[in-house]
Specification:
CATH class of the largest domain: Mainly Alpha
Helix content: 40-55%
CATH topology of the largest domain: Butyryl-CoA Dehydrogenase, subunit A, domain 3
CATH superfamily of the largest domain: Butyryl-CoA Dehydrogenase, subunit A, domain 3
Number of strands: 10
Number of domains: 3
Strand content: 5-15%
Structural class: alpha+beta
Radius of gyration: 21 Å
Strand order of the largest sheet: 1-4-5-8
Distance between the termini: 40 Å
Largest sheet: 4 strands, mixed
Shape: globular
Length: about 375
């Protein structure tokens, strides 16, 4: 039986192995048993994310982040994101940020850094964050201005990061700061900063879809030499590598959100009586549902191709960007079309369709806005 989050036959393609199909099936069934318990609009986003991390980690779905275990392939990461996004927005949100932070540490951290941080991230007892964006530096990471001034054998950080996912609950932040080793991207270094570091203040930020989201203010925040992640002056490389690998997983999450919207719209169209028949009998509704299915299939295949290329050691940058642009733009169109099929019922506050409508919008912005990625794709032609 195909897991609900996936289009028919996609997982049967040779792009996936039996262990991928088993992962999708087990996680889909696990989520289906818990979705009702996850919906608590009255709870604060930060509290919900903490609880979800503990539950996801306790069930073993983050186990691969531990430095003592084999790293997870990107097809598996995509499968986890697609399934979690289909069932619960914040479950995917927390899982994805945990992956981002852990990937940076696993790929560039010292043995001691990996040993110190990864077990907690893998257990869900510790939360991670990737602190890149600033009020004046979003997609253009070369414009990062957070200052990391040398101080003895360490550094003192001053400045602001904003729109940081899990910034208000993180136990460890991967922070991109300017150490002045060269102009633009050459002057950036990545640091590991504890969430309780003196001089670091996290202020929650509200969003159209509830998130654990924050502005981080660094005021004479001192870190030691062991806080440098990777090499000094190579922070830009760390950030780009992590984001490039993550883009295809955003495509997978977008497909999960869109798949849920499609299935809800299909059920609604089949059940809703209208014009002496059902909505599903109307030609324009049939056309809309067909377009949604076509876009879902295309998004699924693009994400799978990009993840397969990365796991196979091939050049995947363009494929990852292509998947992210298409899947996130298509998901927005699918959710919008699903709301139209629901009519006024799709506008009811905190209904599944209304939540999906708010949740899907951010995917076209983070990990590279569509316009920026389109420019990169064009330059590679």
């Amino acid at each position: 039986m195909t897991p609900a989050a996936f289009e028919p036959d996609v997982l049967r393609l040779p792009l996936f192995g039996d262990h991928h199909r088993d992962l999708a099936d087990r996680l889909d069934r696990w989520c289906a048993e818990r979705t009702g318990d996850w919906t608590d609009p009255a709870a604060e986003p930060a509290d919900r994310c903490r609880a979800l991390l503990a539950e996801i980690g306790g069930a073993g779905w983050l186990r691969h982040l531990d430095s003592d275990r084999r790293a997870s392939d990107l097809r598996s990461v995509c499968i986890r994101r697609q399934v979690l996004a289909y069932h619960e927005d914040l479950a995917d949100f927390s899982y994805s940020i945990q992956e981002l932070c852990a990937a940076a540490i696993a790929r560039y951290g010292t043995e001691e850094q990996r040993r110190r941080h990864l077990p907690g991230l893998a257990a869900g007892t510790g939360a991670g964050a990737l602190a890149l964006s600033e009020p004046g530096a979003g997609s253009d990471l070369a414009a990062v201005a957070l200052d990391a001034a040398p101080d003895g054998d360490g550094f003192v950080l001053n400045g602001v990061k904003t729109w940081i996912a899990q910034g208000d609950i993180a136990d460890v932040h991967v922070v991109l700061a300017r150490t002045g080793d060269g102009p633009g991207p050459l002057g950036l270094t990545a640091f590991l900063v504890p969430g309780d570091a003196p001089g670091l203040k996290a202020s929650p930020i509200g969003a159209i879809a509830p998130r654990s989201w924050a502005e981080l203010t660094f005021t004479d925040c001192r870190v030691g030499p062991d806080a440098v992640l990777g090499e000094r002056g190579r922070g830009y490389v760390v950030a780009l590598d992590v984001l490039e690998r993550a883009r295809m997983t955003v495509a997978a999450a977008a497909t999960g959100f869109a798949g849920r919207a499609f299935h809800l719209a299909l059920e609604r169209a089949r059940a809703r009586r209208a014009y002496r028949g059902r909505l599903a009998d109307l030609q324009l509704v049939k056309s809309s549902l067909a377009e949604m299915r076509i876009k879902l299939s295309a998004a699924s295949l693009l994400a799978a191709r990009a993840a397969w290329a990365a796991d196979s050691g091939e050049d995947y940058a363009e494929a990852s960007s292509t998947a992210k642009v298409y899947a996130t733009e298509a998901a927005g169109e699918i959710v919008d079309a699903a709301v139209q099929i629901f009519g006024a019922a799709g506008l009811v506050a905190d209904s599944p369709m209304e939540r999906l409508y708010r949740q899907i919008r951010s995917l076209r912005i983070y990990e590279g806005p569509s316009e920026v990625l389109q420019m990169g794709i064009a330059e590679a032609l």
